[in-house]
Design a protein that fits this description.
This protein is of the alpha/beta class. Helix 1 links the parallel strand 2 and strand 3. The chain starts with a strand and ends in a 10-residue tail after the last helix. The longest helix is centred in the N-terminal third of the chain and has 16 residues. The structure holds acetoacetyl-coenzyme A.
Length: 257
């Protein structure tokens, strides 16, 4: 893997993925996105991983899709390359992904943070969809996910002007979970991942699936989906262990089964 680095952390059951194209501010070219998807698919199958942190570096989470890679392409070439299929598959990851964001999270970089399940931001983080300034529009979900995250008025402002959203504003609008000093953002994200890795991974995955369902369905259908997943947890050893441990007043030991 040339453009990403994967580390399984000392903390139990947590993996860290670092985007690693620093000179290009982690611009998301095809190779990087393919490597990222492969890493996520491998971690999804790895029983020693229960939560994933995805980060860049202090200056940039990612400054967008690689402009140099696509500048001269025609619409048909873009259509045939179908690069966003790779991007779409990222959201199929079953395990929770926390984006740890510092510096620029722009264009496809912002869209990638929104494909994650939670976002921890450093005070220096800047979110935005500046595609309008280079004569195009978001292509990896920005018009949809940003609108759902911050509401129509703010999404219109950001996408139609290309303005950036500061970490503080992103927190105010509910785009990010927490803003911390720059020296703390990765630690904070790993702590969150570690906390999630301590509960039943079966229940975590079923909960993630049900929450994501709320973006796709009407309430009735979403509630039915939740109910099925709730009942499904009763097929797991983890549910039996969790409830037994509560009654016996001890700490549960989850196996992910
Ligand atoms: N693609 C390709 N290369 C990029 C890049 C990108 N998205 N963003 C930055 N780079 C490169 C720069 O070309 C530069 O390379 P060279 O040293 O070879 O010239 C290097 O990274 C450092 O960038 P800057 O010198 O520009 O750094 P800066 O600190 O002055 O500015 C910035 C930082 C404001 C983020 C600026 O780089 C910038 O505006 N980048 C582009 C942001 C953007 O428009 N993103 C949207 C891309 S389109 C998209 O993402 C579509 C989609 O929906 C999927």
């Amino acid at each position: 893997m040339d453009f990403i680095k994967v580390t399984e952390q000392k903390e139990p059951f947590v993996a860290l993925i670092e985007l690693n194209r620093p000179k290009e501010l982690n611009a998301l070219n095809h190779q990087l996105m393919t490597e990222l998807l492969m890493a996520l698919q491998q971690l999804d199958k790895n029983d020693l991983v229960r939560a994933i942190v995805l980060t860049g570096n202090e200056k940039a989470f990612a400054a967008g899709a690689d402009i140099k890679e696509m500048a001269e392409k025609t619409a048909i070439e873009m259509h045939l390359m179908d690069r966003f299929t790779t991007w779409d598959q990222i959201r199929k990851t079953k395990k929770p992904i926390i984006a740890a964001v510092s510096g620029f999270a722009l264009g496809g970089g912002c869209e990638l943070t929104m494909m994650c399940d939670m976002i921890i931001a450093s005070e220096t983080a800047k979110f935005g969809q500046p595609e309008i300034k280079i004569g195009t529009i978001p292509g990896a979900g920005g018009t949809q996910r940003l609108t759902k995250a911050v509401g129509k008025a703010k999404a219109m402002e950001l996408i139609l002007t290309g303005r950036f959203l500061s970490a503080e504003e992103a927190h105010f609008y509910g785009l990010v979970n927490k803003v911390v000093p720059v020296e703390m953002y990765l630690h904070e994200a790993l702590q969150l991942a570690k906390e999630i890795a301590q509960v039943s991974p079966v229940a975590v995955q079923l909960a993630k699936e049900a929450i994501n369902r709320s973006f796709e369905t009407q309430l009735d259908e979403g509630l039915a989906y939740e109910r099925k997943n709730f009942y499904l947890t009763f097929a797991s050893e983890d549910q039996k262990e969790g409830m037994k441990a509560f009654i016996e007043k001890r700490k549960p030991e989850y196996k992910g089964k």
